[in-house]
Every structure is written in structure tokens, then in C-alpha cells.
Design goal:
Two copies of one chain form a homodimer.
Chain A: H1 2-7, E1 9-10, E2 19-21, E3 29-35, E4 38-43, E5 49-55, E6 60-61, E7 74-77, E8 82-87, H2 88-97, H3 99-125, H4 128-145, E9 152-154, H5 159-166, H6 170-182, E10 186-189, E11 192-195, H7 198-205
Antiparallel strand pairs in A: 1-8, 2-7, 3-6, 3-8, 4-5, 4-7, 9-11, 10-11
The structure holds a DNA duplex.
DNA sequence: CGTCAGTTTGAGCGAGCTCAACGTGAGTGG
DNA sequence: CCACTCACGTTGAGCTCGCTCAAACTGACG
């Protein structure tokens, strides 16, 4: 642990809209979010971007660059944020000496793969309402993991970001959030969300999740 | 290389519909496809499955189990197939001794992450026609990688599999394949595909791919 | 106080789904 | 060898969910 700590760089804080890295940048490091949040996105040649992920405190960004040493996404802060930067080459060297570090890092990569495949299922088969319910439950459990409330939280991203991430338009996200509120399952005040009926939300997405 | 070879187990051949592993099975190994092909899928509690991936010769299956030591998908052969099984714990031990093996395995995991994120973009923003064009171009370049023709190939999966993978219905896959054929961009004879106008297919998906 | 990004709401439309029917080919049993 | 079956594939007609377009509202910030 001490040895891992030695290679970590604590960077300056990032403010809203600051980029951690940009698409096609050389890959050097992965980053652990300490506070705040980030989104990753790709720009299609036709202009419009698509959000590929959100990263909350305790989560790791930048694994999209490992394969070909070039970042496939851009990463940008959604609010004031701080991170730990872990230079990848040093992580590799240290992993050769510390079996548990190697094991943990394999697990982290595996978790990213499992997560991405889950989103694949969501995007390929869920209705708009199911996507939004699933998204809110997902954010809830991610906040719970770092000790924050799983029932009341602040969304750091815009409705537009959520829409791009879930393959929906802003309008659909907005309308269905309102609809879930009218049904009494959630309460929405701008970006402040309260999950009032988690079990009913789970029922919407189809039981075997969260 | 010799040392890696020593830990690899060459299993019996698999025939169509044989499972390599099933959802919730304990994770022990990853598998390299030697010949034939596999699909991975999840079963939702509501019954219907969703295909999460196709694996062609030279590709690696099973990384969905690394994180929590349990497979998140099932993997099943689409045709007669053979694989190399690589016990994960031995791969981990050997990776500690061979820096280049560790490095390569990190790259393989990274490539899986990059691939999954690309599918995220496809599912969240492409039209049905773009998805199918993109899928065909993807299969083409994967066959090309192992020395097969990038313009004429056999699809090992059903239209239904493709539909589940791309978030479309069988009917849509069928209709749009026919439409692409009528436009003269591809030729379809059951599962035999020929890509006649690759550049026009690329134009459909939006230029900066393949 | 004006601006502008973000959000909401409504009306209308259309891409892709649903449902239904039929075609086709590989495998199986008589 | 043929008849039968069944999974897979195709095609068409109609419908619906989510998109598009348009307009108005809100709050943060210079």
C-alpha cells in the first residue's frame, strides 16, 4: 500500500469543464476520482458527441487507453473535482512485485468489462422508462458505496448527458422523470433526486438488478 | 511463450449449442477461440435472453468473470469449435514472472473495454441501418485479422442473435439486410455475405470507423 | 439586467416494433 | 427415399414509443 501510495500523484483540483485528457491523447495514466465527478465522451466526425460514462468518487477513469496507448474518449469534469493520477507504466512495474496489486488491478479491469456489458443489455433491450429507473438505481448504489445517501442525492450531469448516455433525447429524459415523479416513485427538484419507492423502481427495470 | 504454452489446456472440441460456461458458474479460466465461434448471452429473469457478444477465431472469451469470480454471461458454441483454456490463477502467477505477458494481458483487457464502449456508442446513437452496416464491417475486419476474406464470409449466428446483439428485432435485421442488398451494397445468400461496396457502407455508419 | 445553458411541456411524426402469415432448408423417423 | 417437423428467415400491414420541432420557463453568471 505504501509503495502504491508512493507512485500516486495528487494533481491540482479540476474545475467544471476542465479536461482530464482528450480523445487521441497519449495514454500515460489512469485516474482515481477523489471528489467531484467526470464524464467521458466521444465526438463523432459528424459533430455531435456521445457520453460513454460517468465517474463518481472512488471510481477509476482512463482504462480506455490501455489497449492502444491512446485515449478513445475524452474525460471532462462535471463540477469541481480532485483526482489521484497513477502512471500506468509504474503501476505495471509495481504489479510485477506485488501480487495482490496485480490481482486487484485485474479485478478493476474485469469490473469495467462487466459494467460495460450490463449497459449493453440496458441499451439493447430496455424501454426509456426502464433505462431511467435503472440509471437512477445505479447512481444510488454507487453513492451508497462511498457512504452517501442511496435515497437522496445530487446528479452532477445534465439531462442531456443522461440522454446521450442512455440513448435517449433530452426531452424523453425530462418527460419520463416527470412521469416517475407523478407516479410517486421519485422526487425531482432540478438535479436533486430522491428515490421514494426503490422497490417499485426495481420492479420497473425487471427485478434481478440492484 | 513456452511457459505460457505449458499452462494452456487444449480441450475437446465443442459442437453447436455446447456451453463453454454458464451464467453464475465459478470463474476459473479464460478461453482463446482456436476455430469456430461462440456467442455470450445473459438471461433476464423475464425469460428472454440478450446476446452480449460474438467471439471469432483468435479472440478471448470469459473476461466477464474476472471481477467477482463468477461468470456474468453464458457462452455457447455457434458451430463446431475448438478452444484453448487458460486457467486464470496460473495466468496471474506467470504474469508476475513475465513482464511482457502481464503487459499483453493488460492490453487484452483494455481492448475488451474499448470494444464494449464502442458498442455503447453504436447502441445509443446509430439507426438500425447504421448498426447493421457497422456490424458487417466489424465482422469483416475481424475475419481479415485472421487471414480470411474481408469481403466474402459466412455469418455463424442467426438473424435473431444479431438482432439481440444490436438491440433490434429479427424482422428489422432481415428487412434492412434485404434493403442493403437492393441498394447493391452487399449480397446476402442466407448466411453467406459479400460486402460489395465497403466505402458506401462506411459512409452509412459515418466515416470515422473501420 | 440581459444572456445563455439547461429544463420542461406539447403537438405531430416516423423508425422500428408487433403481429401475422408464409417460405425454406436441414435434420429425423418411418 | 420420402414425409414430416421445426428452427430460421422473409415479407407485409398497422401501431406505438420515443424522436423532432417549437415554444416558453428557470436560474446562474457576467
Amino acid at each position: 500500500m505504501q509503495q502504491l501510495d508512493d507512485i500516486v500523484e495528487r494533481n491540482r483540483p479540476y474545475k467544471k469543464a476542465d479536461h482530464l485528457y482528450r480523445q487521441h491523447d497519449e495514454f500515460r495514466s489512469i485516474f482515481a476520482v477523489r471528489s467531484g465527478s467526470f464524464k467521458t465522451y466521444v465526438l463523432s466526425s459528424s459533430g455531435s458527441g456521445r457520453v460513454t460514462g460517468f465517474y463518481l468518487p472512488g471510481e477509476i477513469i482512463g482504462m480506455d487507453g490501455i489497449a492502444d496507448r491512446t485515449h478513445a474518449n475524452s474525460a471532462v469534469a462535471l463540477e469541481h473535482a480532485s483526482i489521484c493520477e497513477i502512471p500506468f507504466s509504474q503501476l505495471e512495474s509495481l504489479s510485477l512485485k506485488l501480487p495482490s496489486l496485480q490481482h486487484n488491478f485485474f479485478s478493476i479491469l474485469g469490473a469495467e468489462i462487466t459494467k460495460d456489458q450490463k449497459i449493453h443489455t440496458i441499451l439493447s433491450s430496455y424501454s426509456a422508462e426502464q433505462r431511467i429507473a435503472s440509471f437512477l438505481l445505479g447512481v444510488s448504489s454507487r453513492y451508497a458505496r462511498v457512504g452517501l445517501s442511496p435515497t437522496r442525492f445530487h446528479l452532477p450531469m445534465t439531462r442531456g448527458d443522461i440522454g446521450e448516455y442512455l440513448g435517449l433525447t433530452v426531452e424523453t429524459v425530462s418527460k419520463l422523470s416527470t412521469a416517475l415523479q407523478k407516479k410517486g416513485l421519485i422526487s425531482v427538484d432540478n438535479r436533486e433526486i430522491a428515490l421514494l419507492e426503490k422497490n417499485e423502481l426495481r420492479a420497473i427495470v425487471g427485478a434481478d438488478e440492484f
